[in-house]
Amino acid sequence: MWVYIWLVAVVILGAIVGSFLNVVAARVPLEKSVLWPGSQCSSCYQPIRWYSNIPIWSYFCLRGRCSVCGARFSARYVIVELIGALGFAGLYYLVLVRNIHGWPVSYPASIAEGHYPLSWWVGYFHNAVLFSFLLAVALCDLDSLEIPLSITLVGTLVGLLFAVLCPWPWPNTSEVTRLSVPLGTNPDMAWIVGDIKQGIYAWPVWGPLPSWLAPGGNWQTGLATGLAGALVGTFFLRAIGFLVGTGLGKEALGLGDADLMMMAGAFLGWQLVVVGLFVSIVPALFFALFNALARKEGAFPFGPSLAAGVMLTSLCWTWIVPWGVQPLFFSGLLLLGVVVVSAPLMLGISYLLRLLQRG
Q: How many other C-beta atoms are found inside a 10 Å radius of the C-beta of residue 70?
């Protein structure tokens, strides 16, 4: 019974958040307040009454028209509200019902009935808040090809707050003890070939943790994880933009995209945000194909692709790790080798594309 009660609650909450994000996407790029004035019709400028402003329900009851002047509302409003409702419901199913992050279970029967530990709810809201910020910046990028710094900066601060309050490996607190036990004869190898259990943050900033962060699970570890994620997120994307832009002879990635990854890194840590950038290439191909079929000229927004890639990486990290990602991110020498090889390769490929375009 409680499983379905919680499901209805998160659907309603997601629809309300989606309605608010519509306001954010419409006003923040114009530097307007999201709190004042209240919602009003864009045609007759009359305030929308509360019973005509219920997410999803009011749109269909009014058939998408203003109750005063009859002007038609954009269908995007209800679409975003539906995305919010379905997104929150999907996160509820994956994070709480399926427990895809593998958080510890004390009473399986109680979990099956919908009685989730408080730590699980904290993890759910961590995912839901990240989803909301990503949806907001994606909407802004779709509207104006611009990602407002005011949104990403607030999101970064919220992500750092989560990092401090929920440091790895919480709520998997036994993980610190497990990884402190030597694997064979070399304790460092536990970080290279071991299966690291996820907390709300999947991995710590590095492994083995330095002495000033050991044994993990403290606010210093959390702050270091969030700060490293924010710094790597923004500078990694800026570096790629510089290399590709130099090769192509024109701007390749906007600063707003780097700010988006800064925010995502504060929520997830630097390893996930790096992988998320490469995962975002898949949805970017679909966006580019749609852009080409619609015969739209010029650049298309990369923000929605980045947002989708980051969210997919966060939810699918358990399945990404067995592909051999862990050794790369806990071996400094291997990581340095990848950077040294990939940087000139990226520059060369982009310059070759520049020559092909000229031809």
A: 12
Secondary structure (3-state) at 7: helix
Assigned token pair, 236: 């990694």
pLDDT tens across 231-257, in order? 999 999 988 888 888 877 777 677 889
Q: Report the DSSP beta bridge partners of residue 183.
A: 186
The ranges assigned to domains in the chain are 1-144, 149-359
Instruction: Report the Cα 321 to chain-centroid distance in Å.
Output: 18
> Could you tell me the pLDDT band of residue 167, with boundaries at 50, 70 and 90?
very high
DSSP string of 297-351, one letter each residue: -S----HHHHHHHHHHHHHSHHHHGGGTHHHHHT-HHHHHHHHHHHHHHHHHHHH
User: For 276-289, what is each residue's pLDDT tens digit?
Assistant: 998 998 888 887 77
CA dist., res. 18 & res. 81, Å (int): 4
Give, in order, the Cα–Cα distances in Å from 338 to each of 17, 126, 230, 249, 344.
40, 31, 21, 25, 11
Distances (CA, A) of 266 to 9, 22, 157, 233: 28, 24, 8, 8
Model pTM score: 0.90
Q: Between 236 and 215, whose confidence is greater?
A: 236
* pLDDT above 70: residue 188: no
Tokens standing for residue 3: 């499983």
3-state secondary structure at position 72: strand
Alpha helices (H) along 166-254: 174-179, 190-193, 219-248
Please write the tens of the pLDDT for every residue from 120-141. Answer: 999 999 999 999 999 999 999 9
Structural contact between residues 146 and 29, judged by C-beta atoms closer than 8 angstroms: yes
Q: d(Cα 160, Cα 267) in Å, to the nearest integer? A: 7
- Listed in sequence order, the residues at least 6 apart from 242 whose beta carbon sits closer than 8 Å to its beta carbon are none
